[in-house]
Design a protein that fits this description.
By secondary structure, this protein is of the alpha/beta class. It is built from 14 helices and 12 strands. The chain folds into 2 domains: 12-248, Type I PLP-dependent aspartate aminotransferase-like (Major domain) (Aspartate Aminotransferase, domain 2); 253-342, Alpha-Beta Complex (Aspartate Aminotransferase, domain 1), CATH 3.90.1150. The strands form 3 sheets. The protein has a 7-stranded mixed beta sheet, sandwiched between helices. It has a 3-stranded antiparallel beta sheet with strand order 9-12-11, with helices on one face. The protein binds pyridoxal-5'-phosphate.
Length: 343
């Protein structure tokens, strides 16, 4: 199958499997796994943050951050299609006891401006509004089609939020894709954010794992919450070994996924009934609307499956995600199948 449903479907490379087999391990709940410790040190170094913590999932990393930055009864601000709000099972309300205030990005890019954020803030209404405890950003923005947040925009939001003593968490599940697209280091893109989460298990290709980064004190407290949430793992260096390769090697080839996404975008844009804003496709996620086609998004995906291609339908849209297990040829095969199906 050509699997374009997500970049989470990548299989570990043979280099990762070898490193996993050879990994030195210890009990990570005692912070004694040398491979996990190395991964955490390297991640902190790459991001220019004081410390990092290996988490089983991106959701856990994000939710620990939400919990640590806020207190029960606060509100957190996020773009309305943000992952923390839509796909993390309501955990902000369950674990942190906070309300999520979703904010629409007027230009549809999923990238909020400071004006959009500030109009949703509650900073001085102590008797009738939940105080804003945190601003959450997402780079790249998954559901908006892999759109990217520039360093300037991130810095502006951080500076203005900090002036109001509001911290900023960055869900950087795919920040390495943003970094490649913007030709800007992940450290610069997240420099002023109080915490960052990024996934080793998406386009970077590790089978499991995400990193949460922040100050030393923040990460020490995060370690407590990871354990509380059931994420204290033991000889997990076998996974960190794959993560080290994912974090240091895969960024060098992410541009190929972006080139494939561009080609896919050009191809589908020419099909009758398909609409896509090609300018917005900056990374490895391609979302196009098929409301004007004579066949629904669900039917198109069912037919693609008969051609050996997997894609996801969301309402009238189809999402296709490129990654290292999808070749240039796979993109051409997909476009030929799409032509047949839509015609
Ligand atoms: C933007 C974003 N953040 C967080 C996550 C959560 O990652 P995980 O599936 O590892 O919990 C995802 C997963 O798709 C994501 O796309």
């Amino acid at each position: 199958m050509i699997d374009l449903r997500s970049d989470t479907v990548t299989k570990p490379t043979s280099a990762m499997r070898k490193a996993m087999a050879a990994a030195e391990v210890g009990d990570d709940v005692y912070a004694e796994d040398p491979t996990v410790n190395l991964l955490q040190e390297k991640a902190a170094e790459i991001f220019g943050k004081e410390a990092a913590l290996f988490c089983p999932t991106g959701s856990m990393g994000n939710q620990i951050a939400v919990k640590l930055h806020t207190k029960a009864g606060d509100e957190i601000i996020i773009e309305e299609r943000g992952h923390i709000f839509n796909y993390e099972m309501g955990t902000p309300s369950v674990v942190a006891g906070v309300l999520v205030r979703p904010v629409r990005s007027a230009d549809g890019s999923g990238i909020l401006t400071w004006d959009e954020i500030s109009s949703a803030l509650h900073t001085n209404q102590p008797y009738y509004a939940c105080p804003t405890g945190l601003v959450c950003l997402e780079n790249s923005h998954n559901l908006a089609g892999g759109t990217i947040l520039t360093k300037d925009r991130t810095d502006e939001i951080c500076e203005k939020a900090h002036n109001l003593t509001i911290p900023v968490h960055l869900d950087g599940a795919r920040i390495f894709n943003a970094s490649v697209a913007l030709n800007e280091s992940v450290a610069e893109l997240s420099k002023n954010c109080d915490s960052v989460q990024f996934c080793l298990s998406k386009g970077l290709g590790a089978p499991v794992g995400s990193m949460l980064l922040g100050t030393k004190d923040f990460i020490e407290e995060a370690r407590v919450w990871r354990k509380r949430l059931g994420g204290g793992m033991r000889q997990v260096g076998v996974l960190a070994a794959a993560g080290l390769i994912a974090m240091t090697e895969t960024p060098k080839i992410l541009h190929l996924d972006h080139e494939n996404a561009k080609r896919l975008t050009e191809g589908v844009a020419n099909l009758k009934g398909v609409s896509i804003d090609a300018e917005k496709v900056a990374t490895n996620i391609v979302i196009f609307d098929v409301s004007n086609a004579e066949i629904t998004a669900g039917e198109i995906c069912a037919k693609l499956k008969e051609h050996g291609i997997l894609a996801s339908a969301f309402g009238n849209s189809i999402r296709m995600v490129t990654h290292y297990d999808v070749s240039k040829e796979d993109i051409e095969t997909t476009l030929k199948a799409m032509e047949k199906i839509i015609k």
